[in-house]
Design a protein that fits this description.
- By secondary structure, this protein is an all-alpha fold.
- It has a domain at 43-108.
- The protein has four helices and no strands.
- The protein has helices at 37-51, 53-62, 67-78, 92-108.
Amino acid sequence: MTMNTPKADQPAQSGFPNIEFQEEQATRPVPLHEIPKQARIDREMAVIAQHHARIAKAIDVFWGHRDCVEYIQKLILSGGDGAEKARVGFKPEVLTALINLTNLHEVTYR
């Protein structure tokens, strides 16, 4: 019994096309300024909603109004939620999301 082996100059026939690889290009994380603005807003809102659903709903209602930034700043500075419920403070990721939303809102609705 003889096997059909391909010659050195002929590719093996497998029924699939030959794949030729080009040089690999380095990948990099997408810088924040290249992420679409709405995606950045959605990401920050998701962080807030994960920890404080009621605050996220309030920001969603205020979004696009000039009172939104004032509301967020009041949350950050007072430590309360506007409903007389004292807060020890926000987790760092929530505080960062609130600050980022303030900046995104000012840029969008100035």
